[in-house]
Design goal:
Oligomer: single chain
Number of helices: 9
Order of helices and strands: EEEHEEEEEHHHEHHEEHHEHEE
Radius of gyration: 22 Å
Number of domains: 2
Distance between the termini: 25 Å
CATH architecture of the largest domain: Up-down Bundle
Strand content: 15-25%
Amino acid sequence: MNIIKRIELKNFRCHDEFSLNCDKPTTLIIGENGSGKTSVLEAIYLALRGKSFKGVDREIYKNGADFYRAEIEINDGQKIIIRFNGQKKEFEIDEKKSLRLPKKNRYPVVLFEPDDIYLVGSSPSRRRDYFDELFKQINDNYSVTLSKYNKALHQRNDLLKREIISRDDLFSWNIMCANYGAEIIKWRMQNLAKINEKMTNIYRNIAKNNDSCSIKYLGAEVDEGKYLRNLENNFERDRILGYTTFGVHRDDYEFIFNDKKADGSASRGENRSMILALKFIEAQILEQEVGKKPVVLLDDIFSELDEMRQKHLVDNFKNYQIIITSTSVPKEMMADKEL
């Protein structure tokens, strides 16, 4: 069953007005680069997750406009309306307005962007962001704890920039960073274990070989007490540099291919098959953990994949609603809407 039935946009990015019916399991949006295809996916993501994956609200409304509006009709007839007037964003559902999208109205989303293909060899911050967004969807507590950690870290870093600072000045922030950081490590490792349980089997189904792959967490496997001691032991270094050098905000994830670091040992095709496997696992885990089928948003990635991987992509997501953007019609697909 489709989750999204219809989309209507006004003053959203480059769109004056735009509407799209999503009455088929797969919706294909065709258009040239810069025609606003990704903006449609952004609006869907905003309606289902409560935030954009591209930018802040003041960047979204069309040049020359002073507001934007997005309306998404869900399969049960419910409408999610998002308005932003340049100062305040509000969500309206069943004539009830709120500043945030209520948790009960959120849907899981699998977003596949072209940059995701290069995740294996990307920067640590890009990989952290990727997995943080996934884990936030799996567990609301992860999202809350990560937000609290980042606020405490920001306060600690502000203090470290002062000319004169003592260890005592940092004590309360060290406690909070250690508490939240240890919880984040625990959730990251638990969620990563669920991914690794499936990774090799799904990869082999794509690649049709006996290679193995997994994802390793490059972080401090410490409890709260050890985390706190590490922060305290790094005081002099942090004071000189003016920022916190230890913590989950600096951890990384490493893709392993046949017991070696994938970045440098796996081929381009093997890396892409690993990312495909990860995306398929993402959809499965979200459905299992959240209890709702995710909407799959594929943003112009067919040009990055060969015919074999394109087929796997469509086959593995066939039980989900898929909305695809592309500059041309992929094989065996018909366009529902052209921009």
